[in-house]
Amino acid sequence: MTVFSNDIADYPEGIVLPVDKPWRWTSADVIRKIKWAACRHFGKKNLKVGHAGTLDPLATGILLVCIGPATRRAEELQASRKEYIAGVCFGATTPSYDLEKDIDRVYPAGLVTREKLEAVLPSFIGEQQQVAPLFSAKSVDGVRAYETARRLLREARERGEAFDPGDVLQSSLINIYDLELLSFSERFDAPEPIPATEGKGRINVADVRAYDLSHAEIRVSCSKGTYIRALARDLGEALGTGAFLGSLRRTANGGFTESDIISLDEALTMLG
User: Fold this and answer.
1) Catalytic annotation on 141?
2) CATH (domain of 12)
3) pTM of the predicted model as reported, rounded to 2 decimal places
């Protein structure tokens, strides 16, 4: 394992670390941890540290952490093709399109088969307009979309109604280069629920163990700006059965792949 020298000038182009973002950590959590270690290691109080592309809290995989002059490359790295392994659950929906929020709508079981899913996947390949999840960091009139989403969800619950994101967000042009169905199961092996008050951060993991959900693992190759949670939503709508993400892992970004990835602990050791 490489251990960096104590002089940031030895790295004129900066440092890019392909860190495996831990589950239930935000991307900002990782940046804060590495920035503290890097500033101490290099003896700099104001060392720039950033990332090239946010990962959702319940996602894992490659988070490109840029240190020093490498922060100038963040936009270039973020613009590259990305690859994910998405675990999509069919038979229900959640307001966040993943396990961070509880199920709000249930559909009859058994509507999705491997054959039906394979038949619909090609229609999602290519350039298309996609509406991002309302529970996202997109800005709408200077307000983060997730702040509006929390308000709308709270109001819907007070009225006893299902959450409806409405048309708050405009669609964006994205490109899905390839979709490959890796596996399909008639039963989703749901994770243990974790309240937002337990463990790292404020990230909830909903309890969906009682629901009859089918599950698919799909490899997605796509452009910058593609929301895999939104892709799961759209697949569910196309199949008439609702869907959300049960898991997500980014396996390629900015020319880095799984073979390059390092754990957060390894990154901190390199800056020890």
Assistant:
1) no
2) 3.30.2350.10
3) 0.89
126 plus 66 within the same structural domain: no
Residue 104 sits in the same domain as residue 233 = yes
- Residue 40: give the domain boundaries: 8-80+255-270
Do 39 and 156 fall into the same domain?
Answer: no
Phi, psi of 250 (to 5 degrees): -90, 125
Annotated active-site residue in 20, 56, 104, 234: 56
Domain tally for the chain? 2
**237 in the Ramachandran plot: left (φ > 0), alpha (ψ -120 to 50) or beta?**
alpha
DSSP state of 217: E
Q: What is the pLDDT along the chain (272 residues), one digit of tens a residue?
A: 788 999 999 999 999 999 999 999 999 999 999 999 999 999 999 999 999 999 999 999 999 999 999 999 999 999 999 999 999 999 999 999 999 999 999 999 889 999 999 999 999 999 999 988 876 555 545 655 556 555 665 656 667 666 566 555 568 999 999 999 999 999 999 999 998 876 655 799 999 999 999 999 999 999 999 999 999 999 999 999 999 999 999 999 999 999 999 999 999 999 98
Exposure string for 80-98, b = 16+ CB within 10 A, e = fewer: bebbbbbbbbbbbbbbbbb
Q: Is 75 a member of any domain?
A: yes
224 within domain boundaries: yes
CA gap 234, 219 in Å, rounded: 16
Interacting residues of 125 by C-beta distance below 8 A, sequence separation 6+: 176, 177, 178, 179
204: in domain: yes
Does 76 map to a domain?
yes
**Angle, CA of 35, 40 and 41, to the nearest 5°:** 95
Cα-based distances in Å from 136 to 43, 114, 133, 169:
35, 30, 6, 10
